[in-house]
Design brief:
five-stranded mixed beta sheet, 10 strands, globular, single chain, MCT-1/Tma20, 26% helix, 2 domains, 8 helices, Sulfate adenylyltransferase, PUA-like_sf, Translation machinery-associated protein 20, alpha+beta, 189 residues, 25% strand, cytoplasm, five-stranded antiparallel beta sheet
C-alpha cells in the first residue's frame, strides 16, 4: 500500500471535535490496552488533523506526529511510531530472521516466516505473544522481527493464526505499513 519511496500528502484539514470523540471511542474499542494512554495520544484539548493520502487512505495526525491511518472503512491502524511508543498495547506475532528482508522490501508476509523456528504466534508458550489469545482474520497485528528491538510491520491479518499454524503456507498479511515505506518516510511539516 505504501511501497513508494515518498508519499505526497493531500489536503490537510482539522477534524471536528465530534469526529475526534468518535475516533477516540473507536481507538478505545479496537485497542483496549491503549485506553489508559488515550489522553496522551489524543488529548481532548488538542486538534487532530486529517490528511488525505493516495488510494483512499486517511491519516490522522496530531501536529507533526502521525497516529493512525485508515483505508476507506477498514479499522484504524496505528502508525509504527505509535507502536514503538506503546508496544505492549497491541496484538503481536514475530517473523524469523529470513523473512525480515522480504517484509522490509514490501512483500506480503507469508506464513512460513511465522511458523518456522524463529517465528512466534499465539499459543507458542511465550507470554508476549500469548497475551491476546488466538488471532482472527481481520485483526490488526504488530509484527516483531527475530532479534530486533522494535516492530517492523503493522497491518490487518488476512487469515487467522490457527489457519496459519495448520496450513503453514500462503499469505498471512497482505498490505501493511512497514519500516522504510512511504508512510514511514513522509514528513508532516
Amino acid at each position: 500500500m505504501f511501497k513508494k519511496d515518498s508519499i505526497a500528502p493531500g489536503a490537510k484539514t482539522k477534524v471536528k471535535s465530534s469526529v475526534q470523540r468518535g475516533i477516540r471511542a473507536k481507538v478505545a474499542e479496537q485497542y483496549p490496552l491503549l485506553e489508559p494512554y488515550l489522553d496522551q495520544i489524543i488529548p481532548k484539548k488538542e486538534q487532530l488533523d486529517l490528511l488525505k493520502l493516495p488510494d483512499r487512505v486517511s491519516l490522522y495526525a496530531l501536529g507533526h506526529d502521525p497516529l493512525f491511518y485508515q483505508h476507506m472503512d477498514d479499522p484504524l491502524i496505528p502508525h509504527l511510531t505509535l507502536v514503538h511508543k506503546y508496544p505492549q498495547c497491541f496484538k503481536r506475532m514475530r517473523i524469523d530472521r529470513g523473512a525480515i528482508r522480504f517484509v522490509l522490501s514490501g512483500a506480503s508476509l507469508m506464513a512460513p516466516g511465522l511458523t518456522s523456528a524463529g517465528g512466534r504466534l499465539p499459543g507458542c508458550g511465550d507470554p508476549l505473544y500469548d497475551a491476546h489469545g488466538e488471532l482472527n482474520a481481520g485483526d490488526v497485528v504488530v509484527v516483531d522481527a527475530e532479534g530486533k528491538e522494535h516492530a517492523c510491520l503493522v497491518g490487518q491479518l488476512k487469515v487467522g493464526s490457527q489457519e496459519i499454524k495448520d496450513k503453514k503456507k500462503g499469505v498471512a498479511l497482505d498490505a501493511g505499513h512497514y519500516l522504510g515505506d512511504g508512510l514511514w518516510r513522509m514528513r508532516l511539516e
